[in-house]
Amino acid sequence: MKKGFTLLELIVVIIIIGVLASLGIPQYIRVTEKARQAEGVRALGALRGAQQRYYARMSAYTTLLTNLDATFLGKYFPAPSALNPGTADTPLGSIARNTTERPAGYAYTLYIYKDGTISYDAADKAATAPSATRPGL
Fold first, then answer.
1. Do the domain assignments include residue 33?
2. Which end of the chain has fewer CB within 10 Å, C or N?
3. Containing domain of residue 91, as a range?
4. Closest C-alpha to 48, from 34, 35, 61, 66
5. Is residue 127 part of a domain?
6. Got the DSSP string for the chain?
């Protein structure tokens, strides 16, 4: 009597592992991207706080990052690229997900408004960017 596995048994096990991996990997990417998105939300909160402090000193918002007393060092989100101290309907600032170390389909920009609401706009409309809309920080 021989001991061991037949080729058919090995193929069945490999197929099962492949099916489980195909189900688990996309979920893993979504969860890790959602965790990385927290870096962008934190940077936008720092931006909003710095803008509010600048407004308290100068009675106006600034459009220059160099005028703010906050630093924005992030691996997944570089420094905010747009400061727009316009009306309540326009974002106070935005920050885009960097193009390196990003899974395909996760190109999006986070926006923060004066009231602290954060929203996102997915550049890749087929992508399912993590939900970022939440009031106040």
1. yes
2. N
3. 7-122
4. 61
5. no
6. ---S--HHHHHHHHHHHHHHHHHHHHHHHHHHHHHHHHHHHHHHHHHHHHHHHHHHHHSS--S-GGGSS-----SSS-S--EE----TTS-SEEEE--STT--TT--EEEEE-TTS-EEEEESSTTS-PPP--BS--
User: pLDDT tens digit string along 56-98?
Assistant: 999 888 888 888 888 877 888 887 876 777 666 788 888 888 7
Phi/psi for 105 (5° steps) reads 90, 0
Q: HSE of 124 in the Cβ direction (CA atoms, 13 Å)?
A: 15
Give the type of residue at 33: E
Q: What is the predicted pLDDT for the residue at 75?
A: 81
Q: Is residue 130 part of a domain?
A: no
Tell me which residue of 124, 121, 127, 125 sits closest to 109, measured CA to CA: 121
Q: Is residue 103, in this structure, part of any structural domain at all?
A: yes
For the beta carbon of residue 52, count every other beta carbon within 10 angstroms: 13
Number of folded domains that form the chain: 1
End-to-end Cα spacing for the chain: 69
- HEC states along 81-112? CEECCCCCCCCCEEEECCCCCCCCCCCEEEEE
